[in-house]
Specification:
With about 300 residues, the chain is mainly α. The protein has helices at about 5-45, 65-70, 75-105, 115-125, 130-140, 145-150, 165-190, 195-205, 210-220, 220-235, 240-245, 260-270, 270-295. The two termini are about 45 Å apart.
């Protein structure tokens, strides 16, 4: 058995071989990430400093920071940013709280628990386009199910998606219906990791149900809650499909989000350089909010 300097050399050589093998296995994934994530992101940053227009016959010119100067003075951009942040401010606490409440209920030995879990998760696997089309029929001002229920109850029909005040909350209903099941599963996994002995000790100390939730469940779910809030925020900020299918950013721009504005400028109007600048702005916004949330929740360790 080798000892001393020779054993150290053998250990270092084995460590280098393991590191090489690890990079070898990571190489395909890194190549795909570089090709489909890093390279397009760099391309977007480069295009944001040009006046490139999709399918335009004129040559592309370097525009410097002109696109950024223009978007910072564009009232449409600020309104879209406000709509995006408003939607996120409504969606994140609603979806997180509802998912946690459902998870707490389904973590109990209730009849049909497995069936209920599957039912709540079903909307997650439905295409967002399909879900938006279904809900647009439900929201129909004259033939929709919701308005039929309202009129049957003696209440006036509502415009929903055709109203500037109701369109964004209506889209929030679609997103909540589809996303809550995903966050529910994550919370269930977190609840099942909490040791039952903690609840037993709290009960021995005289803690009631609310006190057990506050002093046992909430602290133990801190990492899980942090993950759910960050994911829910990213999903809310990137809202696009529901808007595109149901309202096309209307009525009167009430549901035009930043991502929809990027599509509108880049595809509909073919202002690709300007759309790239908007995409960079959106990335910086999401990055800043995510870093702030991680700091508020205590980072990865949750302390």
């Amino acid at each position: 058995m080798a000892t001393g300097p020779s054993a150290l050399r053998i250990s270092r050589h084995a460590g280098r071989e393991e590191a090489i093998a690890g990079w070898f296995f990571l190489l395909p994934a890194l190549a795909l990430l570089g090709l489909f994530l890093v390279w397009p992101a760099l391309q977007a940053v480069l295009l944001s400093f040009t006046d490139y227009q999709l399918l335009a016959p004129l040559p592309t010119r370097f525009a410097g920071v002109e696109n950024y100067r223009q978007l910072l003075g564009d009232a449409t951009v600020w309104r879209a940013a406000g709509t995006t942040l408003t939607f996120a401010a409504l969606a994140v606490p609603l979806q997180t709280g509802l998912a946690l409440a459902l998870a707490l209920g389904l973590n109990q030995p209730v009849p049909g628990r497995s069936l209920l879990r599957a039912a709540y998760f079903c909307p997650v696997v439905i295409s967002t386009v399909v879900a938006a089309v279904i809900w647009s029929y439900l929201y129909h001002p004259t033939q929709g199910l919701f308005n039929r229920l309202l009129t049957d109850a003696g209440l006036p029909a509502q415009p929903f998606l055709s109203s500037p005040r109701q369109a964004l909350p209506a889209i929030l209903g679609i997103a909540t219906w589809q996303n809550v099941g995903f966050y529910l599963v994550i919370f269930l996994a977190g609840l099942q990791q909490i040791a039952p002995q903690l609840y037993e000790a709290a009960a021995v100390d005289g803690a009631n149900g609310w006190q057990q939730f506050r002093f046992v469940t909430v602290p133990q779910l801190r990492r899980t809650t942090s993950f759910v809030v960050i994911v829910a925020t990213i999903y809310a900020l990137r809202l696009f499909t529901e808007v595109y299918v149901t309202t096309k950013g209307g009525p009167f721009g009430a549901t035009r989000t930043l991502i929809y504005l990027v599509w509108e400028e880049g595809v509909a109007f073919r202002h690709t350089g300007y759309a790239a600048a908007l995409a960079v702005l959106f990335f910086l916004l999401v990055l800043a909010i995510t870093l702030l949330q991680r700091r508020l929740f205590g980072g990865e360790r949750g302390d």
